[in-house]
Every structure is written in structure tokens, then in C-alpha cells.
Amino acid sequence: MTTIGLVGLGYWGPNLARNFDELAELRWLCDLDPDQRERFAPRYPHARVTGDFDELLNDPELEAVVIATPAVTHYELAKRALEAGKHVLVEKPPAMNAAEAEDLVSTAEASGRVLLPGHLLLYHPAVRAMKALMDAGELGEVLCVYSNRQNLGKIRADENALWSLGVHDLSVILHLLDEEPSETWAHGNSFLTPGVEDIVFCYLRFPSGKIAHMHLSWLDPHKMRRLTVVGKEKMVVFDDMELERKVTIYEKGPWQPTHTYGEWQTRTGDISSPKIPSDEPLRLECRHFLDLVAGEGDPLRAAQDGLAVVRVLEQLQASLVAAPA
Ligand SMILES: NC(=O)c1ccc[n+]([C@@H]2O[C@H](COP(=O)([O-])OP(=O)(O)OC[C@H]3O[C@@H](n4cnc5c(N)ncnc54)[C@H](O)[C@@H]3O)[C@@H](O)[C@H]2O)c1
User: Fold this and answer.
1) Is 36 in the pocket of ligand 1 (CB under 6 A)?
2) In terms of DSSP H, where are the helices of the chain?
3) pLDDT in tens, 113-153
4) Which among 239, 219, 220 has a CA at the least distance from the CA of 146?
5) Which ligand 1 atom is the nearest neighbour of the CA of 67?
6) DSSP conformation letters of 125-157
7) How far is the C-alpha of 15 from the C-alpha of 21, rounded, in Å?
């Protein structure tokens, strides 16, 4: 079984600990905070517990490091782990700028190790179902994708809504459209913590002409986790707030009947919801990591996709900062 060292036992790390304890050998738990170490040590008595990351790197029996620390620490920890010959699963975003993300990809490539950024939504069965519909041409020509990721809270002071929330939607939008935007634009404002935008609107335009939009906010009355894809033949919505109808397909679209001599009309048909498996996305992500470590699949594809996400985040951030206040 693959040996795993988990770094970061805050809010998200314990979910990774639970999964890797069941799927692999959880060999190390590491956190700078002694309270967190004390809290989790009894739950995983077979794991060694430390506050010193170097102890993990110096363990020749440790094959892989999983990083769930704050985003600003990802690059340095991931880089050191790859250089020590460990495979790395790093929470999103893998780095805070494209140059560092690129450096991680080349370090992984040079060391022949796996680098997997934790873009959880890519493992969501609903996203997989949408991608399958799009790839099969079910929606016709895809015109537009837009996402809504809004709620009241969790208010962050260290990362803005673009990096904290937008990273999820962006990973999905790039995955679904399979191209990188040629034009990016972001507007927003920081109302609570100076320099940390709470509300951000992003616009992306792709070389194919497709367009995308993201509404990101933790100051909103609606709790929305929704992604809409508008195709010429059908339209599809992924609503993660729904318990059962996660994906809804609308047979709606524009059409030009011959008798209208070029005038556009609209067409409406059935509305349906396919059954979406209830597999836990994080479990699928952890499995994918272990498969890659075992030599199955392209070890660099996900790292390159993660780099593309950081590249676009960086462009959007530059546009956000450049926008007049
Ligand atoms: N995929 C998802 O849906 C999802 C959800 C939540 C968080 N996350 C990501 O997980 C990461 C952690 O988020 P969180 O909300 O758990 O943060 P958190 O602040 O609750 O926890 C971070 C933990 O890391 C520890 N830490 C910090 N620096 C360290 C270091 N150098 N060495 C060892 N331990 C260190 C802290 O003591 C803390 O316990 C972030 O990158 C976040 O974006 C992902």
C-alpha cells in the first residue's frame, strides 16, 4: 500500500486523512499547531505525528505527501516534497502565481514524480456527466458557460473570492471547454478587509468564440453552487445544492424554421435529470492520486491542467487590481 504523509490538519485535512486511512497507509500526520496534532493523534494511532515537515521528507519509507495547508504555503511545501522524491497531492491552488506553478510542473517532470492539484469538482460525478454530454455533442454547439458561487460566508481575510471560490469554477470551465481563454476580465471590490475582494465578477472569452462568466461572493443572500452550460441544441445545469437533481437537461434552444425566412425563434422540449452516482468526489480524487502513483494514467496531465487554472487566475487577478476603484 502507498505510504502517505498528510500536512495540515485544519478544516480540510481531516477529510483527506479519513480517505487515505481507508485507501492507503497513513504513515505521517504533520501540523505546526500542537493542538491539532493532539486532537488527531488518537484517531490514527498507527500514524507518526510531527510538527516538522523535514521528518516526513527524511523518511525513506514515505512515498507520497498530501498538502492541506493554507494556499500561500503550497508552492514551497510541494517543491520541497518533489525534490525529496515524494509524489505530491497539493490542495488547490497549487501555487499563487503561474511561474511557481510552472516550476512545480517542471520539478515533477524532472523527478518523475506525480503532482496532482486537488481540484475536487473535476471528480464530481455531475461534472463528469456534463462533460460526457458535451463531448458526445448532445448540447450542440456550446456557446456559453456561467457559474454562481455565492453565500453569506465563509468570510476570508487571507484569500479573495477569486482565489478561494473562483478556483473551483475555473477548473471546471477550462475542463469542460478544453481551451484557455484569450481574453479575461474581472471586476470586484473589497468591502471588509482591505485588498481582499469579497465580491468578484469575471468574464472569459475563448479563441473558439465561447464565453464564460463567474459570479463569486461571500456577501450574498443566496447560497448558490451552480454551473450552467448553454448549447445551441440543449442547455444543462449542475446545481450542487440539489440533493437528487444535481444535473438538469433542458431541451431548449434557438432555431430557424424554414417558413420564417431566417428569423430566429425558440424551441422548448423535455426537461430531464439523469441519475448521478453519489460517490464522494474526494474519495475519487484520492483514488486517482493513488492510481497515478501506481503508474496508471498520465502523471503530468492533471498538473498541467492545474497550471492552466493558476495562469488564468493570475490574469484575472491582474485585471481585478487594474480596474478603477
Ligand atoms: N477542495 C476543497 O473543496 C477544499 C475545501 C476547503 C479547503 N480546501 C483547501 O485546503 C487547504 C487548507 O484549508 P483549510 O480551510 O483546511 O485551512 P486551515 O487554516 O483550517 O488549516 C490549515 C492547517 O495547516 C497548518 N499549517 C500551516 N502551515 C503549515 C506548515 N508549514 N506545516 C504544517 N502545517 C501547517 C495549520 O496549523 C492548520 O492547522 C487550502 O488550500 C484550501 O484552499 C479545499
Assistant:
1) yes
2) 13-23, 34-40, 53-57, 74-83, 98-111, 125-135, 161, 167-177, 281-293, 301-322
3) 999 999 999 999 999 999 999 999 999 999 999 999 999 99
4) 239
5) 11
6) HHHHHHHHHHHTTTT-SEEEEEEEEEEE----S
7) 10
